[in-house]
Design a protein that fits this description.
The complex is a heterotetramer, with 2 copies of chain A (600 residues) and 2 copies of chain B (299 residues). With 600 residues, chain A is α/β, with parallel strands linked by helices. Chain A folds into 3 domains: 209 residues, Pyruvate-ferredoxin Oxidoreductase, domain 3; 196 residues, Thiamin diphosphate (ThDP)-binding fold, Pyr/PP domains (Rossmann fold, 3-Layer(aba) Sandwich); 113 residues, Rossmann fold. Chain A has an 8-stranded mixed sheet with strand order 7-6-5-2-4-3-16-9, sandwiched between helices. With 299 residues, chain B is α/β, with parallel strands linked by helices. Chain B has one domain: Thiamin diphosphate (ThDP)-binding fold, Pyr/PP domains (Rossmann fold, 3-Layer(aba) Sandwich). Chain B is built from 9 helices and 9 strands. In chain B, strands 2-1-3-4-6-5-9-7-8 form a 9-stranded mixed sheet, sandwiched between helices. In chain B, helix 3 packs parallel to helix 9 and helix 4 packs across helix 5. Chain B is globular, with a radius of gyration of 20 Å. Classes of the chains: A alpha/beta (600), B alpha/beta (299). Chains A and C meet through helix 11, helix 12, helix 16 and helix 19 of A and helix 11, helix 12, helix 16 and helix 19 of C. The complex binds thiamine diphosphate (2 copies), iron/sulfur cluster (2 copies) and magnesium ion (2 copies). One thiamine diphosphate sits at the interface of chains B and C. One iron/sulfur cluster binds next to loops of chain D.
Chain lengths: 600, 299, 600, 299
């Protein structure tokens, strides 16, 4: 008997290397193609394939499905399927489950861990979960043995398909598509396992779910994750050179571009390290070819010196920083928003630059255009701040209009407006006035990290140094004056304003909706460009009794988060701690809601 | 459309007045490179002079070509970016011994091993000049410097052997005060496709006057070959001249034992440069319609 | 006829390589030994010995002499001696002269630059300077020729000695001491030139000056510059390993230690770059030997990643950053205070650390002790912020009491109080509980930049990550709670409070004295520890109508300086722009005074 | 006072359970180093295992000695600090091919050239493991990786030749699946005073299973010598064995042509390590009275 649910979150958790991601991908496709919105967060171990049956090997997909558009991962999972008890035990630690939710637990390993199974089941029950244990049928077990242990994921996929009332043959079709390179024999074996899982689920699971289809047409929809979106945006923005060094979670931008770029005339250069990568990017831009580099925390630290050079020598440059858990190596496959100050102020000396954050997959696509526009206008570095959760989570969205940007002045006002900025003035004063590209006769331009006068001559006089500082800072003022109000979600006045940026936006928006449903009024202000700050913030803040920030960053009493420090200094408003959690896990709308209730 | 090509003269190549010490070998190198540009009529507009930080690093300011005075040890990354996207440009790189082999070692290593197309001149004065007299990786054992008041304790790095060990495709050494040999060597380097590593003995009268005995030449050994560069017996009358075929790698390794007293081309071989291979890979990729960029992501 | 003056500033400016510094050093000794306080700023070109007779070759010494103690370079020079007209023209651009002051100009080069000489003399007069031109006598010219052009500096030294009424033979004795390695013949030639200069001055100079001697006993006094002081402080603090890479203006710390350290059992390691230097420093501290690294802006940028590792792995570490003009390569031989945020927030991720600034040569000596105390208590990085002007300027001071620190707990409360901090609690919680040094049996400690639990095991769970953040931030709270009020100069209430840190202190103090003399009441608050901030700032600020910062940093309307940003966020007080000049030249007490007048 | 020295057993050397993939060669290396420690009774308390970032970088967590899992490419700086101040410790370094020759190239270069005393093991799986399948400096031409979807275009760096070019004092290559040869080589490396550079062929079944054909041995050439390491003809029955005297530098250079198919000690010579020279310099300096530290600055 199917329960109808407009929105639901579930997860499939297996040992790394056993194909949970693959099964998840097929499921998402099935949901999306059949007219549901999905949002998916892969759970990835920081190691590659740690030994099975250890807590470290936890790998899987958290999938949220809804009749309506989704902006974030949501709070907790209503249904979770685990390959064995150790993974269940590990995952319980994250407290990401819905009380009253369903746990499906494969009992295959019970023979070797009887007590552990019993204990974990007990624990799950004690926190309010319903546990349904199951065993694969003998045929499936035998086939999996033949496949050298592979194929279990197909069984679980079958179960999920059944539980979510997907037509059996429809999902089988998708499996055929995805595994089109497999031999007929192997494919059939996989399909048999799938079918067995499908059958079994209906026997063991007391309940099935039906998520109604959207009324929107999904024919033109696409399925995209943050990093792929960024990669495609880079191509569409007319950038033609990428230099990078692998680092999680930025690497997949490079992987996508390595495949796609050459077909559009672009080049991907894998440098020997992050320093060299940012250097090659600057070299390309100096030579006249728009370029970008992407990295994550440790790589950002390494790039600082070169970013300062780009600033001083007035070479346009775009640096993408996909934030992950820190400090140091930290948590490479977890999310955080703690690189703001390192991005904006990390370079030694007074080195003003612009930082743009992305709130979702759509932003990822258009941010390269805006970054290119700003950096080429200013000839100062632009940092793009994404974060782990934005970079890896997939989403169904309407097909995005392309810009095919060549001349930056052709950028549309709409795209600028998405980032809350207006067109910049036609001319902006530069420290150095001759800015030709190599190859142009009689304009031989020589650039340097030393201080110069307008003609590019190295000078150390008091007035020339002050002049350079003035001009570089005035460039930021130009941007600041072009900034429009950040997006206000909800009413422009009220008791409580939640300030957010980056990936927190979706979570905050959902929390506000939940609050509204409970009759609580609260608004939010979401920043795209996080540095410089626009001029009207005091005005906005004054219309609220209380203003707090919501971030995946560290903060506590007496220690505002980095973003909050900027806002406080700028407005002298006593911005409070809304949520400043840096657990590595994305924020939950329910936690934000709870905090809202505390605060109003 | 034809663009009129202007005749390049020495005076066209002057930019700011140099600020080196009197007698500094960097002056001679500056003039030598200018001479080559005039000789081979290299267009200033198509030439980019990239440098790191050091006395040597100032050269782009004094040369009326395009130029990028970068940061300490990082001339190769910038040059790599330029070389990858602009094969039409001539890239000269100026880097000191510290810039090259101390802070910049990793980039030099990769420049050589990737065979990035450029002429790399290592200005070797065996000392940190600009920061005033510290030990460098090529400082000779025993030299008293500001950071080795008891005398340097290390054997210097052998830059030629280092390059050979990395599979370099062009490895040469010359001295700036040997005008002819210097220009000939840089010319050979310029004509080579790939990373041309040129070690240049450079005088620093200020901090390390004894590094190079430029007034005598009996310590010099020229490697001479029809496919190499001729020994400069006018500039160095007492030098020994040995035959050495630049295609002989083991011979090169063996001659490198006596570095830095050996000038000439140690080794040269043809090999596609990384930048050429990269561009070919892009060119050989069938092009797609940019207006269908996202079509592959449709549900 | 000698004019008596309690305080005076003069300068000796020559082409680089001609010995102005050497002559200056002898003069300082003469003043100091004879009972005057001196403060000297060398003027150094960013190149080594640029071609003579160019503006770039300007090199020399600015010397301030007084009967009373001196805390800074003062505002303008009352007397200036120039080797030729190009240097005079160049130096006029910095506007560092006293109106009505004396210019002594060597006319030797007039033959080849008649018009230029005339023009420059005209210009100097037009800005209110008195120009006295002079020519060396023939004997001196001939000897200088014999000495291959050397020796001019002795002539000028002679002139200065005469003008400042130094006994001729007394200074000659110092020359003999300093040149003790010269051959008798050469020494005598130098002495002859000196004597001729001495004679000549009395003829050409209408006025001589007498700076009264102090009544304090100078017998135990020493002459020390900031960087040498730091180097000696490092030895006295019980640090035994220095790793560095040369960079102006930090290099001279390394030079001093290279000479002095081995005699005290310390080792100086010249690493291949700044990354390796900070790494070796951390390696040494990990192995149990207190260590330090020093650098300047570009090197700081490179060290960021490793600093984060020290933080995460909880290895004590001390990083000295001698700030110079930025951004990028900037102005290597000019002063600025613009690395505050890069020092405190430059590392990616949430990576809390302590930053201590030094206000004078005495602070330089004791800051290594305090840094060592804090970093070993916290096992978190401590950054020491000095700046160019502090690092190079010399000062006469009373001999400093030594601590010969071995166990950090033996540090004296006095020394802590100098940096406005109290003793820290005995135990401070660490992320990792086992912190033994290699060699200790059964305590094998393994450290990492990944997140861990208390036993050091790598974990990525939500709770463990939050725990690590909490503990690392609590370490800073521990420091914050131990901070006493920053030094208040002047009354604790009033109309105007000037906030400063680092080398601005001396200038601000003098400006306040000048203001007081004019009946204007103003106070200052000087910070030593600049991060974290102490808890009582709001209280202090509230007692003043206006609070502004005085720094050699960039700021303007809408863009507070970095330090001001922190103060504003912390206190929500509308801290204004006092002076935020980043011209590369140190602040002048007179400029601060003028600004005070604007503000009250 | 005598400290009781405990007998070291295999089980004493276990720390956290490893998290590598099944079949990963890092397991074998971990066990091999443990075996050596037991064989030579190296005390865990006196041993520091330093590593960079990568799959290989995790080894310190699994070895019950002192350990420092540093950052990517920076194991040598930390090791240098440790080696300089604590000559009583044994320093093992674990670094991947990317960690060593890509981001860490400059430190490796200086570790070798300064001859810092430590045993450096380069885990060469010819791929970036931990970041999932990107091209590394030792990746063979043509291999398809996440960053070279059209196949890697570069000739790999020859790590042995690189080390020889830098004047390394101990240069060897071995394979982790050759248990005996591996332990023998690491033992020789450990007994060498200075920087012992050991290239280790390491299997990565996950991303680069074809890199090393560990099931056959006909491609292997052992360098065998009484002053070197014996060829492991039990572990590699079809291998060729050639005599090579590790003191013969030109022979070493010539054999290095066939790297990575050559295992054994290429080169070894005695030379003072930088850390020894530094300590001697400090020790030889006459000591001063710390209570008179500032006396020299008196007016
Ligand atoms: C990151 C960084 N570290 C250090 C410096 C300081 N620095 C400038 S030039 C130089 C070395 C100069 O020696 P070399 O490369 O041999 O060049 P030379 O001056 O001898 O031509 C150093 C250490 C710097 N500018 N940037
Ligand atoms: C500064 C920095 N850049 C990039 C990374 C990401 N990263 C981690 S390991 C690694 C390379 C791994 O390859 P290798 O050194 O060959 O070690 P393996 O995993 O193969 O053992 C990279 C690029 C990082 N952690 N830090
Ligand atoms: S210090 Fe040496 S290298 Fe530098 S400019 Fe002077 S002579 Fe030339
Ligand atoms: S990815 Fe390769 S190197 Fe890394 S643990 Fe797995 S098998 Fe080993
Ligand atoms: Mg040099
Ligand atoms: Mg590898």
């Amino acid at each position: 008997m199917a329960t109808q649910k407009e929105i639901m979150r579930f997860e499939l958790i297996m040992d790394a290397g056993n194909g949970a991601q693959k099964a998840g991908d097929i499921l998402i496709k099935a949901f999306a193609k059949s007219g549901r919105f999905v949002f998916i967060e892969p759970l990835i171990p920081a190691e590659i394939s740690p030994p099975k049956r250890t807590p470290h090997s936890m790998s899987g997909a958290v999938i949220r499905v809804s009749t309506n558009e989704l902006s974030n991962m949501g709070s907790t999972s209503d249904l979770m399927l685990f390959e064995h008890e150790i993974l269940l035990e590990r995952r319980l630690k994250d407290s990401d489950y819905t009380i009253g939710g369903l746990v499906l637990l494969d009992m295959a390993d019970e023979r070797r861990a009887k007590d552990a199974y019993a204990a974990v089941i007990e624990e799950a029950k004690s926190v309010g979960l319903k546990v349904i244990s199951f065993n694969m049928d003998d045929e499936s077990v035998a086939i999996i043995k033949e496949l050298n242990g592979n194929g279990k994921n197909m069984y679980y996929l079958g179960m999920m398909a059944a539980i979510y009332e997907m037509p059996e043959e429809y999902v089988a079709g998708l499996i055929r598509q995805v595994f089109k390179k497999l031999s007929e024999e192997k494919l059939n074996k996989n399909l048999t396992i799938y079918a067995n899982g499908y059958k079994n689920a209906l026997e063991v699971c007391p309940e099935t779910f039906d998520i109604p289809k959207t009324e929107k047409s999904m024919t033109d929809s696409i399925l995209l994750d943050g990093n792929t979106s960024l990669a495609m945006g880079i191509i569409d923005a007319g950038i033609r050179f990428y230099a990078g060094y692998p680092i999680t979670p930025a690497s997949s931008i490079m992987h996508s571009l390595s495949k796609a770029f050459p077909a559009y005339g672009g080049m991907v250069h894998q440098a020997e390290d992050e320093i060299s990568a940012v250097g090659a990017m600057i070299g390309s831009y100096y030579a006249g070819v728009p370029a970008v580099t992407a990295t994550s925390g440790p790589g950002l630290s390494l790039k600082q010196e070169f970013i300062g050079l780009a600033n001083s020598a007035e070479i346009p440059s775009i640096i993408i920083n996909v934030q992950r858990g820190g400090p140091s190596t930290g948590l490479p496959t977890r999310t955080e928003q703690t690189d703001l100050f390192a991005s904006v102020f990390g370079t030694h000396g007074e080195s003003p630059k612009v930082a743009i954050s992305v709130s979702n997959v759509e932003d990822c696509f258009y941010v390269p255009h805006v970054a290119r526009y700003i950096t080429e206008k200013l000839r100062a570095p632009v940092i793009i701040l994404s974060d782990y959760i934005t970079s890896v989570s997939y989403k169904v969205l309407e097909k995005l209009p392309l810009l095919e940007l060549d001349d930056i002045n052709d950028i549309s006002d709409d795209i600028l407006a998405r980032f809350n900025i207006k067109r910049l003035p036609d001319t902006i004063e530069m420290v150095k006035d001759n800015q030709a590209n190599p190859g142009v006769p009689d304009k031989m331009r020589r650039v340097t990290g030393l201080n110069t006068d307008a003609s590019g001559n190295v000078v150390y006089s008091s007035e020339s140094n002050q002049r350079s500082h003035d001009i570089r800072n005035e460039k930021l003022e130009v941007v600041r004056r072009a900034l429009t109000s950040p997006e206000i979600i909800g009413a422009p006045t009220g008791d409580l304003l939640l300030v957010c940026w980056g990936s927190s936006r979706g979570v905050v928006e959902e929390a506000i909706n939940l609050a509204n449903q409970e009759g609580i009024k609260v608004s939010a202000l979401n920043f795209k460009i996080v540095y410089p700050l626009p001029t009207m913030l005091s005005e906005i803040f004054k219309k609220f009794k209380k203003v707090v920030t919501i971030e995946v960053a560290f903060g506590k009493e007496n220690k505002p988060t980095e973003f909050s420090t900027l806002l406080r200094s700028e407005t002298l408003v006593d911005i409070g701690l809304g949520l400043a959690q840096a657990t590595g896990r994305p924020l939950k709308p329910k936690s934000v809601l709870a905090r809202i209730k505390d605060l109003v | 459309m034809t663009t009129e090509v202007k005749q390049v003269k020495m005076k066209d190549l002057k930019a700011l007045d140099p600020r080196w010490c009197t007698g500094c070998g960097d002056y001679t190198m500056l003039v030598g490179v200018r001479k080559l540009m005039v000789k081979d009529q290299m267009q200033p507009k198509d030439t980019v002079y990239v440098s790191g930080i050091g006395c040597s690093g100032r050269i782009p300011h004094y040369m009326n070509t395009y130029g990028f005075h970068t940061i300490h040890g990082r001339s190769v990354p910038i040059s790599t970016g330029v070389a990858l996207v602009r094969p039409d440009l001539n890239v000269f790189v100026a880097s000191g011994d510290g810039d090259s082999l101390s802070i910049g070692g990793n980039h030099l290593l990769h420049g050589i091993s990737k065979n990035i197309h450029c002429v790399y001149m290592m200005h070797d004065n065996q000392i940190y000049g600009l920061t005033k007299n510290q030990t460098s990786p090529t400082t000779r054992k025993g030299l008293v410097t500001a950071t080795s008041p008891g005398g340097s304790i290390m054997d210097p790095i052998n830059p030629i052997r280092f390059a050979l060990g990395l599979g370099a495709t062009f490895v040469a050494s010359t001295a700036e005060w040997l005008g002819q040999h210097f220009v000939d060597t840089i010319e050979a380097a310029k004509n080579h496709k790939g990373f041309s590593f040129v070690h240049v003995a450079q005088r620093c009268p200020k901090f390390n006057p004894a590094a190079w005995d430029f007034q005598n030449s009996d310590w010099i050994n020229f490697l001479d070959h029809e496919n190499g560069v001729a020994g400069d017996t006018k500039g160095a009358p007492d030098a020994k001249v040995v035959k050495h075929d630049p295609s002989d790698l083991e011979g090169a390794f063996s001659h490198s034992e006596n570095v830095p007293n050996v000038f000439g081309i140690f080794y040269q071989k043809e090999k596609a440069s990384y930048d050429d291979l990269m561009r070919q890979a892009v060119e050989n990729t069938p092009k797609k319609d940019p207006s269908k960029l996202l079509d592959g992501f449709a549900l």
